[in-house]
Amino acid sequence: MQNKLNCVLLVDDDEITNFLQKHVILRTGIARNIHIAESVRDGIDIVKEFEGSENPELIFLDLNMPGLTGWDFIEEFKTVRETYGKKSVVIILTASANPDDEKKASTLEDISEYRSKPLTDVMVNEIVEKYFGVSAGI
Predict the structure, then answer these.
(1) How many other C-beta atoms are found inside a 10 Å radius of the C-beta of residue 44?
(2) Domain range for residue 65?
(3) What are the φ and ψ backbone dihedral angles of 70, each rounded to 5 degrees?
């Protein structure tokens, strides 16, 4: 793939899920850098840290995490985006079976898509083609 994203951010409290998702992203070759946050607070801190220099262009966000949830991340991300001018594609990537979650996600402009785990090569390719106009070449 010729065009790579500068940064992909994974926000998920499960260490094994993060390992597997990172492996999928590495295998597709779509990102120069992959950052992992195991909590909403860490995810927001990562977004703030770069202040536009290495904006996470793509964020995969779990919903069901202890303490602050993916919905809390979205609320804080709105403020961060307004402050730092962050433009990111946010994909909810969850194992939630609650149909209300998908409905809620479809009403929020900060969420680009709602997808079910697990993350796959095909899913990554579909997302980067749709939102960034590049192919992972898989």
Answers:
(1) 19
(2) 5-130
(3) -60, -35
